[in-house]
Amino acid sequence: HEAALYDEPCEWVSRGGVAQGRLRLARDTLEFAASPPLPSNRQTTNDEAADPPSRVWSLSDIGHLQRRRYLLMHTAVELFIDSSALFFNLHTKRKREALRRALRRAGVDERSIKSRHALTEAWQRRELSNFEYLMELNTISGRTFNDLNQYPVFPWVLKDYSSESIALTDAGVYRDLTKPVGALNKERLAQVGAHALVRNPQEQPLCLVETILPPPPLRGL
Fold it and tell me: Given CA atoms 185, 187, 188, 193 in this order, what sign does their dihedral have?
């Protein structure tokens, strides 16, 4: 083994589960060495995800890195290889920053993200498709396909899911975008109104809009 630029315990996070192991960065390679899981403390029910083989990647194959949160903590990084990505939780922000600096010294740059304003302008100029634009917004918000708690989200636009075919020029196939999701269903809106009427304004001010809006992570997009 050549001298390591970084060598610390980590978690490899994927949709299949979380694997404990050790991440080792050398001058030209990145290696994940899996730790045998304890029978009484398995990290996932998916045996393949829990017991991955040790893996080695060439740094020349890693396009860029991006800092991520894991369980609301700024302790993770995501490394992008072609159309896939590797998500590692380093347990502490200090260790995450140490890995980030080591990767940059080894030639793996952090992704430069356009500002939301620049992204919107590029989308308006049709330089980005709707899908690309929404995926960029998801990326800026820290969402990833590797962590189900931070999975990318897309706006709910259509309301006709029963027809065999739809005409995108027909306004009737789209939901009413002037209303929040919680106000689209008449029964749901009636329940919200009834709930608001029984509240004591002196103890808790009436706030109907807050009740029917989606939760903050969805509002961010």
Answer: positive
What tens digit of pLDDT does each residue of 37-78 get?
A: 665 554 554 544 445 568 999 999 999 999 999 999 999 999
Q: Is the pLDDT of residue 1 over 80?
A: no
Euclidean distance between CA atoms 162 and 160, whole angstroms: 6
Q: DSSP secondary-structure letter at 20?
A: E
The two three-digit tokens of residue 111, written as one number: 């992704």
Strand ranges across the sheet with 73-81: 55-58, 29-34, 17-25, 6-14, 84-89, 73-81, 64-70
The model's pLDDT over 106-135, given as tens digits with 9 standing for 90+, comes to 999 998 776 778 889 999 999 999 999 999
Instruction: Name, in order, each residue with C-beta under 8 angstroms of 30's C-beta and a sequence gap of 6 or more.
Output: 23, 24, 56, 57, 59, 62, 79
Q: What is the pTM of this model?
A: 0.70
User: E strands of the chain, at which residues?
Assistant: 6-14, 17-25, 29-34, 55-58, 64-70, 73-81, 84-89
Q: How far is CA 98 from CA 19, 32, 89, 91, 103, in A?
A: 21, 17, 13, 12, 9
Question: What DSSP state is assigned to residue 36?
Answer: P
Radius of gyration of the CA atoms of the chain, in A: 23
DSSP states of 122-157: HHHTTSS-HHHHHHHHHHHTT--SS-GGG-------
